[in-house]
């Protein structure tokens, strides 16, 4: 890594919480093609708060999966919730 790629205080520039890239190979994955996202990413893309998202999860309106201690929101479920159709 060169000094040019470092931000303030010698760190890499931070990304937004909704980052569509995979750190391993830096390929861009459009949000609607992702399988899952974090609760924070779901908040960012919907404009809803964490409390409301967890209410939707609890009522069964939003599908999630848990891997270890990490809860991931199923993107297809999120898109259906906000009325967005997925075009293949």
Please give a structural write-up:
With 88 residues, the protein is α+β, with helices and mostly antiparallel strands. It has three helices and three strands; from the N terminus they run βααββα. Strands 1-3-2 form a three-stranded antiparallel β-sheet. A hairpin with a 2-residue loop joins strand 2 and strand 3 (70-74). The longest helix has 9 residues, at 50-58. The relative contact order is 0.14.
Strand arrangement, major sheet: 1-3-2
Shape field: globular
User: Major β-sheet, in short?
Assistant: 3 strands, antiparallel
What string gives the helices and strands in order? EHHEEH
Query: What portion of residues belong to β-strands?
Result: 5-15%
Rg, Å, rounded: 16 Å
Number of helices: 3
The mean pLDDT is: 80
Low-confidence stretches are none
The N- to C-terminal Cα distance equals 38 Å
Tell me the total number of β-strands. 3
Classification by helices and strands: alpha+beta
How do the helices and strands line up, and which of them pair or pack?
Layout lengths: L35 E3 H8 L3 H9 L5 E4 L2 E5 H7 L7
Antiparallel strand pairs: 1-3, 2-3
